[in-house]
Amino acid sequence: MKAVLSVMRYWLDMGIDGLRLDDIPYLIERDGTNNENLPETHDVLKQIRAEIDAHYPDRMLLAEANQWPEDTQLYFGDKKGDDGDECHMAFHFPLMPRMYMALAQEDRFPITDILRQ
């Protein structure tokens, strides 16, 4: 974990605005599981977020989790005030292809449909 935080600090000190945390549902590996959405992943994310909040409060963490919204929302963490204690933002992967479909079909339905789910 020290190496992860060191690399993270290096880039934040260089002035980047935030970090994309790639494929976070599979961050931790445990034998006998598919490694998806393990509780230990949230422990790591909380450590990373604590570092960001303590030393880089104007920076953000973006979750890349190709999951349905109800699964992705877990990566915002536990609520504290108006914010969580893990990621600040997350990609909405189910929305992405529907945006293209809506443009191609000239119809808002693919977007409004997925947002209602």
From TrEMBL:
Residues 2-100 form the Glycosyl hydrolase family 13 catalytic domain. GO terms for biological process: carbohydrate metabolic process. Coiled coil: none annotated. SUPFAM superfamilies: (Trans)glycosidases. InterPro entries: GH (IPR017853), GH13_cat_dom (IPR006047). Pfam families: Alpha-amylase. It comes from the Bacteria. This is Alpha amylase. It comes from Pseudomonas simiae.
